[in-house]
């Protein structure tokens, strides 16, 4: 139990309020995975087991946290917004986490100390009463991967969050340590594994074509246990990142300004592709390229036929039933047209070389 002293001191009438400390309040599926907290002004019978002088910030890491994109959109960016909204500069806070995941703290061990000087409190395992001078419950979220500077007291934007990540993960390494010192720009090719959907079926051809265009190609297949410091050094030292729309593209946050992100947009994923990646990528000053999948490049043609409603009129097929999106998100794989793809590679190469000539020569 966590007990905020100020509630008792300033509340004459007992209050009772229930609050799930997670941003996606309207998402029933996400909320079903979140423990609701009870806020009350009635003092506990037990005395304080631990008395803190710093304020507490309570939030959940449940919901969709297993997805890398949602780790940033639902937790880390809202956490950055909340800290910069409610805590004056140099005022420390203690992070109190519910719906705790054992892998979360180790994964973000290099980033979390930049939010707080204290150990994370796992609310689910606490058996003693903690007392704080003040408590904030929940995180502030503005929109998909976006920060609205007009709603923040210090005019912070996603560019500031990008720099925040750089401070955490760049550490003491010289940029030259992570950048390939040769004439070929590095292209990171994001590979989605089988059975997750939106897989590039002709990956070997894609890699070969990129190499022939004179890219140094690295296949990127991160998992839950992949070191973010190592991922940062790989992505930060690269010039182009290419992948089908999906959570792993969130690593664009590790790219340097003016580097290139190529998003392969499968059929009927234009809206989420724009909202989740296109808009924030432009905010960061990255070069954005979009490869829109044509019907003949989609595995849905073979499965349903070119005249099926899924391809002929995706809007009508989807309707307002989000579950129908599974066809496009989970069942659809991609076989890129190599003639068309090569043109994109040449364009990306020219952008990458221009970046290298201006910044690495």
From TrEMBL:
Pfam families on file: Glyco_transf_61
Keywords: Glycoprotein, Glycosyltransferase, Transferase
InterPro entries reported in the protein's UniProt record: Glyco_transf_61_cat, Glycosyltransferase_61
Cellular component aspect of the GO annotation: Golgi membrane
Keyword Glycosyltransferase recorded: yes
Keyword Transferase carried by entry: yes
Membrane topology: Single-pass type II membrane protein
Subcellular location: Golgi apparatus membrane
Endpoints of the signal sequence: none
Gene Ontology terms for molecular function: pentosyltransferase activity
Main location: Golgi
Source species, domain of life: Eukaryota
Record-annotated Glycosyltransferase 61 catalytic domain positions: 68-262
PANTHER family (alphabetical): GLYCOSYLTRANSFERASE (PTHR20961), GLYCOSYLTRANSFERASE FAMILY 61 PROTEIN (PTHR20961:SF86)
Protein name as annotated: Glycosyltransferase 61 catalytic domain-containing protein
Gene source species: Acer negundo (Box elder)
Classification lineage: Eukaryota, Viridiplantae, Streptophyta, Embryophyta, Tracheophyta
């Amino acid at each position: 139990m966590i007990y905020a002293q100020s509630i008792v001191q300033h509340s004459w009438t007992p209050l009772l309020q229930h609050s799930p400390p997670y941003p996606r309040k309207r998402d029933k599926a996400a909320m079903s995975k979140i423990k609701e907290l009870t806020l009350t002004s009635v003092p506990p019978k037990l005395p304080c087991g631990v008395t803190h002088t710093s304020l507490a910030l309570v939030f959940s890491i449940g919901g969709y946290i297993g997805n890398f994109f949602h780790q940033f959109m639902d937790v880390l960016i809202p956490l950055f917004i909340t800290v910069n909204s409610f805590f004056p500069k140099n005022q420390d806070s203690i992070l109190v986490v519910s719906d705790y995941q054992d892998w979360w703290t180790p994964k973000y061990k290099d980033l979390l100390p930049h939010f707080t000087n204290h150990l994370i409190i796992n609310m689910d395992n606490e058996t003693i009463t903690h007392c704080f001078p003040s408590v904030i419950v929940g995180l502030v979220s503005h929109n998909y991967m976006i920060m609205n500077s007009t709603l923040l007291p210090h005019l912070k934007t996603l560019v500031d969050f990008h720099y925040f990540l750089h401070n955490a993960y760049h550490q003491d390494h010289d940029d030259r340590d992570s950048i390939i010192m040769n004439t070929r720009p590095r292209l990171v090719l994001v590979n989605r594994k089988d059975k997750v959907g939106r897989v590039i079926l002709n990956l070997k051809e894609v890699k070969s074509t990129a190499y022939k265009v004179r890219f140094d190609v690295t296949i990127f297949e991160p998992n839950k246990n992949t070191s973010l410091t190592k991922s940062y050094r790989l992505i930060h030292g690269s010039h182009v990142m290419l992948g089908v729309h999906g959570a792993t593209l969130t690593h664009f946050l590790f790219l340097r300004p003016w580097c290139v992100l190529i998003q392969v947009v499968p059929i009927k994923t234009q809206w989420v592709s724009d909202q989740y990646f296109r808009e924030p990528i432009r905010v960061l000053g990255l070069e954005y390229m979009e490869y829109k999948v044509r019907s003949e490049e989609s595995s849905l043609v073979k499965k349903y036929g070119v005249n099926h409603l899924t391809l002929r009129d995706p809007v009508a097929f989807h309707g307002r039933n989000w579950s129908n999106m599974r066809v496009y998100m989970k069942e659809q794989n991609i076989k890129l047209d190599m003639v068309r793809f090569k043109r994109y590679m040449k364009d990306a190469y020219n952008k990458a070389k221009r970046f290298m000539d201006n910044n690495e020569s």
